Structure formats: structure tokens, C-alpha cells
Amino acid sequence: MSSVLAKLLSHNGNQDRRTPKELFDELNNEFNFQLDPCTSTSKPNNLGTPHFFKYPEQDGLQEDWSKYKSVFVNPPFRDAYKWLKKAKEESEKGCTVVVLLPSKTETKWWHEFALKADEIRFVQRRVTFEGHKDPFIIGIALIIFKEQQ
User: Helix, strand or coil for residue 65?
Assistant: First the structure.
């Protein structure tokens, strides 16, 4: 990926994209999230989930999520592959995982994990993340892995 595109995708290098509360609340009404495994480093537990992991104290990629039953993940987009792999693994252990990521259908992670999810929902508007002035330049997808046990 070119450095220009990488900067655009990361809002000039900032990977801390806090989920808009309105979007989260709408999803939370449906899924009743118990865990945010990659909470914002600049504003920990900004979504108000009962449980959260804050890196580097707790690395959500290393922790077990399955006891939480319903998990919301808005990961650093540059690490989408790792977080989708983990989401799929945790759903196979018994929890539902909703992952918010850009609709990057040409990527390896999209084909290896997103297309194998139980459901993909496309947000029908441009999303402006908390702490950012402008909407994100790419559409957002919600990739849902449902509990497998």
C-alpha cells in the first residue's frame, strides 16, 4: 500500500478511531456487548462496556474472550487480519463477535475471514469517528461472527 493511502486510511497516522456512540448504542441494543477487547488508548472504555482490555496492560489478541458472550471490536485498521482471525477463533469458543472495519473487499483479510462470517452489514453512511473532524474516506462494514457452540 502506498504511504499516501496508508496515511489516508489511518487519518494521518492516528489509529485511535473511537466508535461513534450513536452507532455503538444501536448495535449494543441488539447484541448487549460485554467486552471491548481493544478499547481506545486515548479514552479507555469510552463505549461503557462492562469489561474492556487496554493495550499494553492487556493485549486483547492474547486474552480469552469466550466468557463474555458478546464482544464489540473496533481494532486498529492496520491490524485487521489479526483481529478478524481472533474474532473467528473466539466465536468458535462460544461468543458472538461484531467487528467494525473498512469495506476493503480486495484485501486478504476480507477474503479469508470477512466472507466467512455469519453476517456482513454495511453502514449506509460515512462514519465520523470520535476525535476526528471529517468522515472516514472508506465505507464501514460490520463483520459478525455468531456463537458457534
Answer: coil
> Which pTM value belongs to this model?
0.88
Q: Report the side by side order of strands in the sheet with 96-102.
A: 51-52, 35-36, 70-73, 96-102, 140-145, 119-122
Alpha carbon of residue 116 to chain centroid: 16
How many Cα atoms within 13 Å fall on the side-chain side of residue 117? 23
Total of domains in the chain: 1
21 in Cβ contact with 130 (< 8 Å): yes
Q: How far apart are CA 118 and CA 65, in angstroms?
A: 18
Segment holding 140, helix H or strand E:
strand 140-145
Instruction: Give the domain CATH number at 78.
Output: 3.40.50.150
pLDDT tens per residue across span 103-134: 999 999 999 999 999 999 999 999 998 888 99
**pLDDT tens digit string along 15-35?**
568 899 999 999 999 999 999
CB burial string 66-86: b at 16+ within 10 A, e below:
bebebbbbbbbbeebeebbeb
The boundaries of the domain holding residue 76 are: 3-145
Rounded (5°) CA angle 120-32-90: 60
